[in-house]
Each structure stands twice: as C-alpha cells, then as structure tokens.
Amino acid sequence: MVISLHGDEISFATSGSTGTSTRWVRTFAQIRAEVTVVAARLGPIGQIVNFAPTGHLFGHLYGVVLPETLGVPVHHGWHHPAAVPTIRPDVATLLVCLPSSWPIVRSMARSLAALPAVVALHGTGPIVPATRTVIERLDGGNFRVVEIFGSTETGAIATRAVEATGSQPLWSLLPDVDLIAEVDGGPQPLRVSSPRLGRNETMADYPQVLVLDDLVEPQAGRLFAHAGRASRLIKVNGVRCDLDAVEAHVALLHPGCEVACVADRDTLRGEHYDLFYSAPAPGPTPEQIWSVFGRFLGPVPLPRSVCRVEGIPRSATGKVLTERVRGLARATAQPTIGFT
C-alpha cells in the first residue's frame, strides 16, 4: 500500500517509475471535493465496478471515497483482474478503468449493453485499442467513456470524452482548477492553481500553484490541448524526439508488442533513449524493430539500443518501472542491437 493516514490528512506516494518515490499529502476535504466535482461530469451512478487498486490515488478516490460519498455499492474487480465481475442489471453503472482493464470490459460488452446507462472513467495511462473496440461495439447505446487528466501532486485537473474515431478532443478544466498560461501562448509547461493541490512531504504549507512535467497549448473556453510530457520530449544530438510517438508507431506496426522507450543521459549526445519490447512468440526480432525506423519513422532518431525482454514491468497504475526494465535487459539472454 502507498497510502498513509495522518490526522485529517492522507498521503500518497508517486509510483517511483523513474527512480525515487516521494509522498504528496492531501486533506480529506480535498479528497471529497475532488470526487464531487468529477462525479458531476459522470451522470447518475447506482453501482461502481472498480478495476484500480485502492492503495493508489485513482483507485482510492473512485473505488473507496466516491462510493462512500454517493452511498452506492462497489465491486472491486482488481482483486481478481482476469475475472468478469457480476453486476446488477438494472442500475446506472460506473466502471473505474486502468489501461489494463479494457480487455475485461470488452468481454462484458453484452451485459453492459443491457444496462440503463454506463460510464467508464479512464485514468492513469493512455487509451488502448480495446477501449475503442468497446466504444464501437456499444455505439448508439447508453455507454460513454470519460478520460481524466491529473496527477498525484494535483489531483484531477480536467476531463474529456473518448471517441471511437481516435480523435483527440480538447481537455476541459474542472470548475475548481485554473490554468495559468504564459502571455505568448503555444506549448508551455502546465501550471495550475486549485484549492485541491497536494503538499509535498517536504513542504510546510499547501502550495497555491504547481507546475507539472506536461506541455499544453491553452485554448479558449477553459480548454487545452496536451502536447506531451517534457520528460518524454528529448533531443538526441539536437534532434527532437517524442518518445510517446515512437512507442505508439512501433506498437502499431508490430501488433501485440508492448513497447517502452526509456530516456537516459548520454555522454556523447546529451540525451538518448533505449527501446525495450515484449511480444508473444515468435514475435519480431530486435532487427525487425530496428528496421521500422528507417522505413516508417523518417528522421526520428534511432534508439541507442533495442532489447526484447520478458514483459515490461509496470507499477499498479501502469507506469513503466525503468530500473526494473533495465535490470531485465541486463539479465536477458535475448539479443540486443544498437550503437554506443
């Protein structure tokens, strides 16, 4: 568990996916305020199926605090993540989903179609192909997906609807969050103010403003476009490289592959990255993955290395555990290609 209770405060640890974990503190009043403003965008809820571990912020908020606030029953699907949950057939239902939840939700499509209303709240990671498959199967019914944008530090910041077409709608700020934009506009670090901002364990007081690693483009009407994460946008010998885009393209060209690009400092080029992937047998070879770059990705800088591993280790909320994946690569008997 990553939750700790201290009087009228509760603390959550960040995932430690890039190294050292740190704790952020919120008050119970902040927690209750968050689920209230998010619930207002979800519509009626008569029961909740929660796929997110409750030891982490997302699962605790919407698998514990929200059902307590609304007085509705909750089924914790994360206890048995491969099992299809049994749900009441006659009430509006909220599904609390991680990226890894969607294959199970897909298998529930027929029973979901019979419900009066279903909303899936997706968080902690990107939308996956199974998400859009479910939307397509239930198109025209009472099913919708709401994606939530936030962090351990800030709590929920914004939401948007998810569409089967793959389009990327703008994010809509929650009513108690303000985006502090730079005068010149354009992609810029995400600066937010809110009465719900967390306090780092090293801070004496709760902050008025926090700056996140995300880059955004502010739009009119309290909307913004997400341009990526600063830590996922690196420059290899002066050439910009979006690691999220690299992962998405490689996975698209090699269906079934799970891909993780891990950034690192490089003594020669300043910054660089290594590409790790796992795939069912026989799967592509590192050479086949490498060939994707020259044929399909144009000027995108080649990874420093390509290594096949037995699974990409992730936190309970889906974030890549970089030190563990590097450890797997060092221990693997699989061939690695690249340059130094």
From TrEMBL:
It comes from the Bacteria. SUPFAM superfamilies: Acetyl-CoA synthetase-like. This is Uncharacterized protein.
